[in-house]
Design a protein that fits this description.
Hypothetical Protein, Haloacid Dehalogenase-like Hydrolase, Chain: A, domain 2, metal ion binding, 2 domains, HAD_sf, 10 helices, 14 strands, eight-stranded mixed beta sheet, Rossmann fold, six-stranded mixed beta sheet
Length: 267
């Protein structure tokens, strides 16, 4: 398998980043060595592209960037290869539902993320203010079109209820994923990390059989299950590990697990 692997794919939060949402020096060194050895690097994240770019610039290597769970693809030279937004009227119909006011609602737009309230837990994910939040009254918006619709709440059960409520009326429009137990994300039905990764692989003359991938969330599920070798982080939800129990579980994001695995098994 090792000789067949030419592409390294990694999620960011809970995977490549530690709990301080940083890429460690050890991880940077391993990824620089991978680049020097000719491996293609793909970062696939639920984060917005402006937010993700601010994080991965510290790697100082060319990478393909899949963001908003596949709604955007950027080439290593920053060229936009793919872009897809959810239509305004579809999101407006979601806001017409009776959504629990204790839930923080976020619309990820191109230059700003609009939020129903200040949420310190979500704001802590940002180490750089290149993609700033703006608190708004969603009832006053005229254009609801967005890259991604996002909800967060401390209770996973509350978000489960919301997921069921939205899909009851909108299942034909949305794909969804829990990137973390407290983060529920909705994208257009055509959008998924695995679809975006396949686009890059075809462009570069590779297939999933040439790729290894690392992830920790349900937005990584198809990606992990499609590549030649999918690795699940120890800090991933047990429900994801149970669902993908045929895949290997490695150490946690705070143990430099991605870098350690690649150094020992690929380099």
């Amino acid at each position: 398998m090792r000789s067949n692997i030419k592409v390294i794919v990694s999620d960011l939060d809970g995977t490549l980043l530690n709990s301080n949402h940083e890429i460690t020096a050890e991880t940077k060194a391993v990824f620089n060595q991978l680049h020097q050895n000719g491996y293609l690097i793909i970062i696939a994240t639920g984060r917005h592209h402006l937010d993700a770019k601010a994080i991965i610039k510290g790697l100082n290597i060319p990478v393909y960037l899949v963001t908003s769970n596949g709604a955007r693809i950027h080439a290593p030279n920053n060229e936009l290869l793919f872009s897809f937004d959810i239509k305004s009227e579809i999101i407006a119909s979601v806001f017409a539902l009776d959504i629990d006011p204790t839930i923080t609602t976020v619309l990820f737009k191109e230059e700003v993320w609009l939020t129903s309230k200040t949420n310190k837990k979500i704001n802590s994910f940002q180490r750089d203010l290149s993609y700033p939040p703006e608190v708004v009254d969603f009832n006053s918006l005229k254009d609801y079109s967005a890259i991604k619709l996002f909800f967060t709440h401390d209770s996973h059960e509350v978000l489960q209820d919301l997921k069921n409520q939205i899909l009851e009326h909108h299942s034909e429009y949305f794909s969804h994923a829990f990137s973390l137990p407290f983060c529920l994300e909705f994208m257009d039905k055509s959008v998924d990390k695995s679809v975006a990764i396949e686009t890059i692989l075809k462009k570069e003359g590779f297939s999933f059989e040439n790729a290894i991938a690392f992830g920790d969330g349900f937005n990584d599920e198809k990606m992990l299950d499609t590549v030649a070798k999918g690795l699940i982080m120890q800090n991933a939800p047990d429900t994801l590990k149970d669902k993908l129990q045929h895949l290997e579980v490695i150490a946690s994001n705070n143990d430099n697990a991605v870098a350690t695995y690649l150094a020992q098994n690929i380099l």
